[in-house]
Structures are given as C-alpha cells and as structure tokens.
Description:
This protein is α/β, with parallel strands linked by helices. 32% of the residues lie in helices and 25% in strands. The protein contains 15 helices and 22 strands. It has helices at 10-21, 33-42, 55-60, 76-88, 106-115, 123-136, 169-175, 216-223, 240-249, 262-269, 285-290, 306-318, 334-339, 348-360, 438-443, and strands at 2-6, 25-30, 46-49, 68-71, 94-97, 119-121, 142-146, 151-157, 181-188, 191-193, 206-211, 232-236, 254-259, 276-279, 298-301, 323-327, 344-346, 365-370, 377-382, 403-410, 413-415, 428-433. The longest helix is centred in the first third of the chain and has 14 residues, at 123-136.
Amino acid sequence: MNIIIAGDGEVGFYLAKSLTELGHNLTVVDPNSDLLKRLESESDLMTQVGDATSPEVLENAGVEQCDLFLAVLHEESINLMACILAKKLKAKKTVARISNVELLASRHKQMLQELGVDEMVCPERIAAKEITNLLSNTVATEFFDFSGGLLTMNLIRLDENSSVVGMTVREISQANKSLQVRIVAVLRNGETIIPHSDFVPRAGDMVYIISRPNQMEDVKRVVGKSDFAIKNVMIAGGGRIGRFTAMTQEPKMRVTLVDEDRQRCEELSSVLNKTLIINGDATDMDLMKEEGISSADAFVAVTDSSETNILTCLHAKRLGVRRTIALVENTGFITLSQDVGIDTIINKKLITASYIARLIVKGDAVRSKWLSGTNAELIEFRVHKHSPAATRPIGDLHIPDGATVGGIVRGNTTVFPMRETQLEVDDCVVMFMFPHVVDSVARLFE
C-alpha cells in the first residue's frame, strides 16, 4: 500500500517507522528538513519537505498514487485541510487526527466526509475512554473489548499467590474446565511469547487473556486477583485527556484535578461541575499530600511530560495509592514503567496506530489494538462468503507461527477455538499476531 503521512512530531514518525516495517511504501511530509533526514537514516522510506496544505507539496509526494493519506499533525485545522486537498488530488482514503470531539457527531462527520475527510481519530478521547474502562476494572492493567463487548482482552500481572503459577497451560485448562478463556500471549522480561500447551507461567508475567465479560469473576479467582471499588481519583494534568476523564468520572466518584496552568484551571472550572480543581505542581509532594493523594484510590497522570507522569505515579504508589495510570509518550519508557510498578501505561502513538491498523490490512478488519510494551497486535476480522477461512476448520488454515486465534464471535454468542472448530460466514475472529505475519493472516479473511 502507498501511504503518505503528514506529521510534525513523534506520532507521525512512529507511524512511519511501524508501517514501513510492515512492508508498506511510505512518504512522510514535514516542514522540518532536519527531522526528515534523521527519519530517512533510520527507516526505508521517502520524505518530502514542506507544508501538507500545499497542493504542490502533496503532488511532489505522490498523492495521485496514494492509497491512504494520514494527517496527524498537532493542529487539527491543518489535518482537515490536508485531507480535503489530498482527496481532491486523487488520494483514495484520508484520515485526520482531531482534538475537537464535536466533529465526531454524525452530522459533522457526514459533512466532512463529503468534503473529503473519510475518517477521523481523536487519540485523547480514546485515551480517556481507556482510562475510564481501567478505573472500573482494577484487576487488568490493559483492557480492550471486541464485537461490542462480547469478548474482552485483559492484561493481568501474575503474583506469587496466583494458582496458575507453576502449572502448564494444559493443566490450567484441565483444572478449570468450566472457564472458557484463552491465554493468547505472555510478556516476560520484555519478550512477547505465544504460549503452547506445555508453557508454564511465572510470577511477574504479564498475561494477555481473552474471555467473556461474564466470566471475569472466575478469571480473577483463578489468577488470584481481587477487584476493589474506586471512589476517589486524583488526576494530574488538565489537558484534553485529563478533562475528558474528569467529565466522565465526576458523576460516579470524587475527582480532584491538579494543573499548574492557572488559566487552564479557570477554563476547567467552567466545564467541570463536581471536580475539585487545584492550581499547582503535581511534582510537589507536600502539595499533593496536603490535597489528599494518600486517600486516593487511583492516581492518573496525564501531563505533557512522560517523566513527570512516571515520577508522580511512583510517588503515589509509595504513598499507598492502589491504582496508577500514566500517559507515557516515549515508547522506550513503556516497559521500564511497567517494570517499576506503574499499573497501566497510556500511549497516544499506540492509540493512533491501533485505529489505523484496521485500515491497512488486506482482510475486513473490524477493530484493532496495538499492545503496550510489545510490537504485537490484536485484530478482529470478519469472515466473508469468499474468504479462504470460510467453512474450514481452524486446524486446516495453516495459521503461521507468530499468530494465534484468540476467540470467535458468532452472532450474539462466543466460541473459543479448537483445531476442529469450523469458521462460518459472518464470524468475527480475534487474532493475536506479530507484524511479520499480519499479511499472511489477513489473506485468510479477504
């Protein structure tokens, strides 16, 4: 696929590197020539210096042969204009990164689609939704649902007291025959493993589990985890993610939001009715103690600084806060953050990549999720009448090493796969995959 990315920072560059590794032809448009030279030296792609809202720049980047045009600059208006121009210049599909969630309303989406903006992604809104899910599910450190919630993916850290530690995957299944779950992957010491039946989980492993939502209580029992109610949350950072999170949580629990920008605090006070807003520095531990961080059930750090978010979460953990969530934009910090005890990492690059992944695979991808701390992804495919996978048992599909079936949604029911399970037309199949096998797997669902 020929892809053009218009970006002005880390999100665009991260997408460019990731999509190049998947074998796509990439051209990056950016006004900063020095950054483009660095990107060219690190990846096998083309670059074009210039403004993405210039028709001449877009033509020089090859927009007429473009299958997918991605505008992911920080400035929403530039992204929308760039997509409109790219579409008029014959780009097949366009995606704009936005920050104004009002544009996602049906009537606004339709208007922008008519102008040439095919898809819009708001990473901050998705991040706030993920945080909301994680505040209601205190066992998982990462959470994602498929097919309207009929299947869920939970990332759970195993403790010493977990009954599954020291047992093989086969033994776990035999001991819990009524529990239909699938362990699709294990993250251990920075390595991602697709476990076979003789694999033995260890304490400290991060385990990716796919299950039905109504079986989560049984999952918790088996892995030795217990949920707790969050009634008091403190948020550091009043940007879009912090604001969205506070708006969704203030009707349910006590919310305190800390931000050092006085003007922003005044703006927040006009839209947040029940949230206690503190104008101050979240790294000032005396201030945070004074404002009650020790009594918070959860601490969410979403400032513009990854370092501040990591540091404040560690302080919160030391003061007894049971649930910590940090926005970490430097992907190199993700594994480190997990290792030092931060419960959950949110990353806007991965959020944007997850949204875009379903647009670039060959099969009919319904939903996708790039996983934190690993280069693997989960993609939900729909089986069509002429798909190679249709009406064939899973064992006959020759699924390559580096991929596994996580679960199947059939109508309003779920099926946990075995070799003899036959896929039917309109099934939605959740696949866990490494990048090098995505194309091979996607061809099964074309």
